[in-house]
Amino acid sequence: MANELDILVLEQSDTMIYFRWTATEDVCRVKKEDQVVYTGTQNLFKDEGLKKGELYTYTIERLDSSGKWTDKIKLHTGTENRKQDSINRLEEIVLTAIVSENRISLAWGEIEGITEFDIYQNGIFLETVEKNQYTDRQVPMDQEFTYWIRGKRPVAKSEESFRKEKFTVAKVFGALNWNSSRDKAAMEDFWLTKIIAPLDNLLSDKEKPKAYPVWHFRYHTFLPDLILKNPNLLSPFPYFQGDGRDFDPDSLHYRTQVNFTVDLKEEESSLAYDKDVGPTIGYNWRKKFSKADVASAEGIELEKIEETGHKVSITLKHSVGNPITTSPNIDYEVSAAFYRDGTYDIIGIHDQSPNHEVYLKDGDDGEWIGIHLTESEGLAYMAGPIASQYWRISNFH
Length: 397
Description:
Blueprint: E1 7-12, E2 17-21, E3 28-32, E4 35-40, E5 44-47, E6 55-63, E7 69-78, E8 95-100, E9 103-108, E10 117-121, E11 124-129, E12 133-137, E13 145-154, H1 163-176, H2 182-185, E14 187-196, H3 199-202, E15 214-222, E16 227-229, E17 239-241, E18 256-263, E19 270-277, E20 279-283, E21 289-294, E22 300-307, E23 311-320, E24 330-339, E25 344-350, E26 355-362, E27 369-374, E28 389-396
Parallel strand pairs: 14-28
Antiparallel strand pairs: 1-2, 2-5, 3-4, 3-6, 6-7, 7-8, 8-9, 9-12, 10-11, 10-13, 13-14, 15-18, 15-26, 16-17, 17-20, 18-19, 20-21, 22-23, 23-24, 24-25, 25-28, 26-27
Organism: Planococcus notacanthi
Protein name: DUF3238 domain-containing protein
């Protein structure tokens, strides 16, 4: 009897994906999406001439003695996207999901300065790993699973050119800020998320009906407190009005809101978006109304940067200031790729203040799904020298 198939080696570059699986004496075949790209007795496959930063799905099967294709393995992987000027390492690496019967394996690229990662399944901590991979066995076949991979590193390890200066300032900030610590202010947070459809769907031989998704995207920044102290002691407004709420995709209270809808039609997609800025209200030392104004939305820019037969790529840049006093802007960036097969890959970076909440909805009748929800570390964390949060989410559908 032949050995059960398993992936032994997986390598990527900007233009190539190579993988090797368990050697058997049987014929194996490899499919890329729905096309058979290799059939034979070799136990390796190299796919070259690929686009950088693109996701691909491969299926490996073995032909058994009765003439049936068996031992199915599926890989959701991609090419790297290395950039000289990148400040977000998650933008460059690949998170691979490998699935087979009752098993999910994850593998991801190295991030300089991170030696261990915390693994969560559906929000529950599983374990800390020192390798850049994790395997979950005895996985039920009929459930969707969401995995989080979390790593931290000092700002001094950041790809940014001014990292040493930034690290020193962050340490000083942590010592001065009453609501922080030196270590916290100087630690960057990285979150990789993979949403994996039920295994019986992914491994099914049934042909999926062709449907072009319509994705609705929503990004709020908000302040959870109703009234909060201004960290700038020289400001004429010792207090500000916050939004007084928890995470809520439908809330009308926010610092800023960005919505867009991308309709992945068979031919050319359509993109619609809107943006809004909530009022800023300053209070005096008695916490009484002093001044109100609304910041400009000019610093919010959304752009469709590429469209191919497979996907649409979008960038969102956000920089909105306080209209009534000098303070750092609320800054974030998002790059998103939406594939016509229903897959998405979304990458973001932001300061660790205020609260950030990002939601996706599939179609007009769908429900908002929180894809990135993070709590503020305090208003002072909007300052430039402080450690950022980096996140990336993709789905295997």
